[in-house]
Amino acid sequence: MNRIKTDICIIGAGSGGLSIASGAVQMGADVVLIEGHKMGGDCLNYGCVPSKALIAAGKAAHAMETGAPYGVSPITPKVDYGAAKDHVAKVIGTIAPHDSVERFEGLGVKVISEYGQFISPTEVQAGDTVITARRFVVATGSSPFVPPIPGLDSVPYETNETIFELREKPKHLLVIGGGPIGMEMAQAHRRLGSEVTVIEGMKALGKDDPELAEIVLENLRAEGIEIAEDAMAAEIRGKVGAIEVEVKDGRVFKGSHLLMAVGRKPNLEKLKLDAAGVETHRGGVKVDDSLRTTNRRVYAVGDVASPLQFTHVAGYHAGVVIKSMLFGLPSKVRVDHIPWATYTEPELAQVGLTEAQARETHGDLLEVTRIEFSGNDRAIAEGKTQGLIKVMIVKGRPVGASIAGPQAGELIGVWALVIANKLKIGAVANMVAPYPTLGEVNKRAAGAYYTPRLFDNPKVKRIVRFVQRWLP
Ligand SMILES: Cc1cc2nc3c(=O)[nH]c(=O)nc-3n(C[C@H](O)[C@H](O)[C@H](O)COP(=O)(O)OP(=O)(O)OC[C@H]3O[C@@H](n4cnc5c(N)ncnc54)[C@H](O)[C@@H]3O)c2cc1C
Ligand SMILES: NC(=O)c1ccc[n+]([C@@H]2O[C@H](COP(=O)([O-])OP(=O)(O)OC[C@H]3O[C@@H](n4cnc5c(N)ncnc54)[C@H](O)[C@@H]3O)[C@@H](O)[C@H]2O)c1
Fold first, then answer.
1. How is residue 369 annotated by DSSP?
2. Which of 251, 281, 286, 324 lies 20 to 30 Å from 26 when distance is taken between CA atoms?
3. Most informative mutation of 161, 309, 311, 340 for ligand 1 (most atoms within 8 A of CB)
4. How far is it, in rounded angstroms, from Cα 378 to Cα 434?
5. Could you tell me the maximum CA-CA distance found in the chain, to the nearest angstrom?
6. What is the reported pTM?
7. Of all atoms in ligand 1, which is nearest to the CA of residue 144?
8. Interface pTM (ipTM) of the complex?
């Protein structure tokens, strides 16, 4: 057995583990990084990167069919689904060197390509190496949750770990789960020429503001995607090419392929956390607000420790634990400033509280400004006027923002900045936005806060009339 002593041992080389490894080693710590499968984790190999690449292929196809309003004759694109998957693989391949063993070893990290498991509160074994470390980080991510729906064990199905390698275009894709994975994949496949049915047990895009989610769902339906809500999958039957999903109320949906997208389960099995005295709960590793587990030497970050399962959250966690592990400084996580975006078209993005959450927390103190994209000149020029931004404001400070519309994922950045730094709404209202940009909706949403205060205010009118009388 080889033995290594190090400052920091990280288990899992996905978004969280890689960020910690590169940060810690470049600041002078000795770092061991253990990865049992693919460097880059879910985001690079089975998540964000391939999904956005497939969405890009779908957009290219969709553009060919929707040129008429611009004077460009629409044509039905000839989609080579396999070639679209080549594009996906190429994108992964382009980004992969950044997350590779070679790059990390070049930075000075010792990378071990094995699964790791705790053998004591201060030791992890990976293959034939035992690592003793001052601090450990569990960054093992999550995997697709596949519920025990009767019949599913005898029917072929895809998950996010297999769909990006599928080469034959599904004639009719059934998607169980109307969350971000389900809806992004539904639209990409529809645009690439598959029929698509989404079967959602409750409300599709249910974690977002329902009014804004509806704008997206309306557009997806208009593109030909069938979205069945209140449709909890109860039984699955059939074989490749002929699959049936029966939902609780007896409705039956038929398709050729099935994608399971009903949420995630934390990757805990291989870790033997008991040996380290690290406790878990249903959602993953139990952590305090410094991301420390019940063993104070062990931290946990990213999907394995967070209900907010996003790459940027894993990256944010990395910063929090680096501060604590490397400098021994107090460091706590916040969740109120975490944005997210779903990359359908139109996109759907959120930071802070939704209107309903803000109403519940702040009651009558809440003011909500609303601006539709239909009044934005750039949106009009591009023919993308479907969209709405809402900003939730309490005593002059935004506590949440929700956007459905073109590039909502980019536009939410301004509100993420404002909420992270607890800025006043005036910070956005005072900004000069270049014309004509979609970003002007942010400024207009901030300006709308002042509209009743300035334009519908008799006191302001009296003052202006008074000053005008005396001005030379
Ligand atoms: C289809 C899809 C699309 C997504 N799109 C987005 C998006 O657009 N934007 C966004 O922000 N997020 C997106 N996500 C979520 C994002 O991928 C995750 O939040 C992110 O990857 C979590 O990072 P992580 O470091 O916690 O885990 P991961 O990236 O999953 O990395 C964990 C790593 O640990 C390894 N591992 C597990 N157990 C062990 C062990 N015992 N020993 C050694 N190694 C181990 C795994 O092999 C894996 O490589 C998407 C997810 C999916 C599935
Ligand atoms: N753009 C992004 O940032 C992005 C994209 C994809 C995934 N992700 C991350 O991955 C996570 C997982 O995504 P997801 O879409 O798998 O999960 P999710 O939990 O967000 O959505 C799953 C959906 O499946 C439904 N469901 C559960 N059981 C069902 C059943 N038996 N029949 C029908 N419907 C059922 C749920 O009601 C829910 O709406 C997300 O929460 C997010 O953190 C992010």
1. E
2. 286
3. 311
4. 11
5. 91
6. 0.97
7. 53
8. 0.98
